[in-house]
Structure formats: structure tokens, C-alpha cells
Design a protein that fits this description.
Elements (H helix, E strand, L loop, with lengths): L31 E2 L12 E2 L4 E7 L2 E2 L2 E2 L5 H17 L8 E8 L5 H12 L6 E5 L9 E8 L2
Parallel strand pairs: 6-7
Antiparallel strand pairs: 1-2, 3-8, 4-5, 6-8
């Protein structure tokens, strides 16, 4: 709120008037752009207009169904398959992944994730954070958030 006249503690002015202004609007270039394959939930695919690609909520899913009945290792494989598919649709190689966040419903499953992770990044591992969470959409055991560069 923008106020005219001398302000009082209650937000009114000496003249008793208050004036409202609309919040600033985001530019068209900064609005969220949803690209790529469909997902479970309201996850974005890319934000802004930079060379960075932000991918969130990569779940072990096919045909809009979360494969929660698979082992954590198998779910991780499906997540990384989906990541590669999304990146290849933009002609971005897996080597361009800059950061990965792995969310696990059982933090003790790190070893299962590590085993699959090692096979995909050929020793040039991007920085990674592993976070324990209470639950994931569809009963999944693992979910990925990824930042890659589109050069």
C-alpha cells in the first residue's frame, strides 16, 4: 500500500486516505515456461531465458504412473532414463548436468542410488546433494531435481 499524507501506526493517513497499487508483474521473459514431457504434479521444466535448464520432480514414472513398486535402484534407473530423455529432446548431453539433488524417502538407500549414479556419469560426477524426505508423489522412493547447461 502506498499512503499519502503523514503516516500513522494503523496505516491510515492524517487525511484518512490509503492508496493501493498493484504488485509488479513479471516480464514475459521471466514467466515460467513449461516444456517437455508431462509430470505428476505441478512441476516446471524451465524458468527464464538463460542457458540453464532447471528440471524438477523427475519421478520414476511411465505413462503418467509412478512406478513405486520397483526397488530404489530400479526407480533411480527410471529417473535417470527420464532425465536423459528430457535432455536429449533439447540436444543436451548428460555431461552438461551441473547439479543434481536426489530426494529419498529412506536415506539409507543412498548406496543403491550411488550404484546407478556411477554407471551414468562415467566418473565425471556433477555436484550432488542427497536429502531425506518424508514422502514423494505417488509413493516414489526417489526423485531428482537437476540443473543442466544448454550450450
Amino acid at each position: 500500500m502506498v499512503q499519502s499524507g503523514a503516516e500513522r501506526d494503523d496505516g491510515a493517513t492524517e487525511a484518512g486516505e490509503t492508496e493501493s497499487i498493484s504488485p509488479p508483474r513479471a516480464s514475459t521473459a521471466s514467466k515460467r515456461q513449461r516444456e517437455g514431457t508431462g509430470t505428476v504434479g505441478a512441476f516446471g521444466k524451465r524458468t527464464g531465458s538463460s542457458d540453464l535448464v532447471f528440471l524438477e520432480g523427475i519421478l520414476p514414472e511411465t505413462d503418467d504412473r509412478v512406478l513405486s513398486d520397483l526397488s530404489t535402484e530400479q526407480q533411480t534407473t527410471v529417473c535417470l532414463d527420464r532425465l536423459e530423455s528430457i535432455l536429449s529432446s533439447r540436444a543436451v548431453p548428460l555431461e552438461n548436468v551441473m547439479k543434481v539433488e536426489v530426494q529419498l524417502t529412506d536415506i539409507d538407500d543412498r548406496a543403491a542410488v550411488d550404484g546407478v549414479y556411477r554407471t551414468r556419469f562415467d566418473g565425471a560426477y556433477p555436484p550432488r546433494t542427497t536429502v531425506g524426505v518424508c514422502a514423494l508423489p505417488g509413493g516414489a522412493a526417489v526423485q531428482l531435481d537437476v540443473v543442466a547447461v544448454d550450450e
